[in-house]
Amino acid sequence: MSKTIKIGNREVGDGQPCFIIAEIGINHNGDLEIARRLIDAAVNAGCDAVKFQKRTVEVVYTAEELAKPRENPFGPTNGDLKRGLEFGVAQYREIDRHCKERGILWFASCWDEASVDFIEQFQPPCYKIASASLTDDGLLRHHRRYGRPIILSTGMSTLEQVDHAVEVLGRENLLLMHTNSTYPSKIEELNLRTLQTLARRYGVPVGYSGHEVGLAPSVGAVAVGACAIERHITLDRAMWGSDQAASVEPQGFERLVKDIRAVEKAMGDGVKRVYETEIPIMKKLRRKG
Predict the structure, then answer these.
(1) Which phi and psi angles does 171 have, rounded to 5°?
(2) Is the pLDDT of residue 12 over 70?
(3) What are residue 232's phi and psi, to 5 degrees?
(4) Which of 162, 111, 115, 159 is nearest to 135 (CA)?
(5) Span 208-224, mean pLDDT?
(6) Going from the N-terminus, what domains does the chain have, and what CATH number goes with each?
């Protein structure tokens, strides 16, 4: 089984630079200008891709759920909020245009079949399947109809559930993402060694989707073997919105990318050697041999 997949013009997997995804998700708060600014922040940080979320509200949520009272910027109900956060075709055309202009890949996690069909018109380089959708066999199969690479998050799922999802999707053009689905996640529950468990079990590229506060675990995941890193991006963690607190601000994203690239350089090839730069120190300090 190949340990790399191709996403757009990028090879992702063993021996390749870490593929860094800035998840915009719903942090745009329904505002296209905020979405553009988040795309620009991801580009400036050196990210490889940005990711959005797409839902058909009436399919994903029940009428009872949508009718629940929930004060928000769009109205008094949960339905007002969910509809207000969804971009339509005009907004996604602008997102597509802006990402192409800035030279960054974009794709989306689609929570229902109609949303997959909607995003397909933009010919995304891949699809992301959220942890919440891992057990939705029909949605998994619908994604595969288009033959694009799949990134599958495995949060709040047992190994047996992941086994089944991988069986449904097949292992070709598949990248698994280890994650903890709490927002924000507790450091002691990140369990980064699971990256190695998934890599051994499935023989496919494995990455990490982080929801923790801070950057160190996401950088550490690269040292453990993550070939892709996904973090939510925000203009300000104090902004209104359910995902903002578990997100990374632009300056933090720049640091995250810089630190990931530094760790990649530091990992080396595992061959023990004496470097030329060490020889003068060796001659100066070593008394024997």
Answers:
(1) -95, -10
(2) yes
(3) -70, 140
(4) 162
(5) 97
(6) 4-285 (3.20.20.70)
Instruction: For residue 33, give the amino acid letter.
Output: E
Q: How far apart are CA 47 and CA 256, in angstroms?
A: 10
Structure tokens at 89: 């075709």
Please give the average per-residue pLDDT across 93-117, as a whole number.
Answer: 98
pLDDT digits (tens, 9 = 90+) for 239-287: 998 889 889 999 999 999 999 999 999 999 999 999 999 999 999 999 8
The span from the CA of 108 to the CA of 94, in Å, is: 15
Q: Which two tokens stand for residue 66?
A: 């949508």
Angle 25-29-30 from CA coordinates, rounded to 5°: 95
The answer to whether the CB of 50 falls within 8 A of the CB of 23 is yes
For position 1, what pLDDT does the model report?
Answer: 53
Using CA atoms, how far residue 98 sits from 40, 110, 250, 260, in Å, is 9, 20, 18, 26
Distance CA 119, CA 102 (A): 20
CA distance 170 to 24: 28
User: Is 125 a residue whose pLDDT tops 70?
Assistant: yes
Q: Is there a cis peptide before residue 69, judged by omega within 30 degrees of 0? A: no
For residue 288, the model assigns a pLDDT of 86
**Contact between 46 and 257 (Cβ < 8 Å):** yes
The Cα 48–Cα 190 span in angstroms is 24
117: number of Cβ within 10 Å:
14
Q: Measure Cα distances from 262 to 170, 268, 278 in Å.
A: 34, 11, 20
